[in-house]
Design a protein that fits this description.
Its EC number is 2.7.1.60. The protein has about 325 residues and is of the alpha/beta class. It is built from 10 helices and 12 strands. Helix content is about 35%, strand content about 20%. The structure holds zinc ion. Zinc ion binds next to loops.
Length: about 325
């Protein structure tokens, strides 16, 4: 098997893994640069990459947390000053190795090959600051006619309130069910919540928080239940910081199981935050062509994934 080099770019940290000689691997992590200037950030990223790659690296696989089209960054709400730049060619200005870039929700979907043991169809849903979704259909990543498949966060829901979304529509799911959406809802109720940067900082039994979490979980549950009915996909992998909140997740699961029991009563295979970094795992799998590998080549990769998964990485 060829050497594998994967980088996962996140909003707060960048993680890399280099797998060589089949079983050996090295990981590294750094804070995502935040100089407010794309070129300065890029230089830091390049300095992170260059010492790690040997001549045996046939390509660099990157997972990116925003909307990207043929290497050009269309949208990254975390760092709008990166938008419009061609990330792929910018990296090529410094490094000649081929570069492939995938959106992180799609990488999460690829990690399903590992989670659901090569099953045909599955969905990955990430609930963090926003909401992302990746689909595996017939063991292939499904991207849609325009590569925009998976915009779950901007599907509209019926709720107790009318809220305008940055996309131009009203009542998009992410306004009610994402980490940022729920924090914004609390701010609307009381400016007191301004002191909190994330939902996890708010005291667990705060009454307003519980109401917002319940509605958020339910609306995601209804939306996913609709998707299960349309697609008949029962392998669901949920990731992201909000999924760690048991109150939110219970509310989500109650809707999913209740709706399923009322109608077709299929067996849902639901996995909650089983991978520390689904995008990095997806990157390893796509770079290695995992689902086309024979078992004896899949197994060493599985062991590596198990190891990196059990380690909590701090910067
Ligand atoms: Zn929207």
């Amino acid at each position: 098997m060829q050497d594998i080099f994967v980088i996962d770019i996140g909003g707060t940290k960048i993680e890399s893994i280099y797998i060589f000689d089949n079983l050996t691997y090295k990981t590294d992590i750094m804070k995502t640069p935040n100089s407010k200037n794309f070129h300065s950030d890029l230089e830091i990223l390049i300095k992170f990459i260059i010492p790690k790659i040997r001549s045996n690296v046939t390509k660099i696989t990157i997972s990116f947390p925003g909307l990207i089209e043929e290497g050009i960054i269309k949208k990254w709400p975390n760092k709008p000053y990166w938008e419009g730049y061609d990330l792929k060619s910018s990296i090529h200005d410094y490094i000649s190795n081929p570069v492939e870039i995938f959106e992180d929700s799609n990488m999460g979907a690829i990690s399903n090959f590992y989670i659901f043991d090569n099953s045909e169809n599955s969905i990955y849903i990430n609930v963090g600051t926003g909401i992302g979704l990746g689909l595996l259909l017939n063991q292939q990543l499904y991207l849609g006619n325009n590569n925009y498949a998976g915009e779950l966060g901007h599907t509209q829901v019926q709720s107790s309130k009318t809220i305008n979304c940055s996309c131009g529509k009203i009542n998009c799911l992410q306004l009610f069910s994402s980490g940022k959406g729920m924090l914004d809802r609390l701010l609307e109720i009381d400016k007191y919540y301004r002191r909190y940067k994330t939902l996890s900082e708010i005291p667990k039994y705060d009454q307003h928080l519980l109401v917002v979490l319940k509605e958020g979980g339910e609306l995601l549950g209804i939306t996913m239940s609709n998707l299960i009915n349309i697609m008949d996909i029962t392998n669901l992998h949920f990731g992201g910081s909000v999924i760690n909140n048991p109150y939110y997740t219970n509310s989500l699961l109650n809707v999913l199981y209740e709706n399923e029991s009322k109608f077709l009563n299929r067996k849902l295979n639901i996995q909650l935050n089983v991978l520390r970094n689904p995008s990095l795992v997806g990157g390893i799998l796509i770079a290695s062509g995992y689902n086309h590998l024979p078992k004896y080549q899949q197994n060493p990769l599985k062991s590596i994934i198990k190891l990196i998964n059990s380690r909590s990485k701090k910067i």
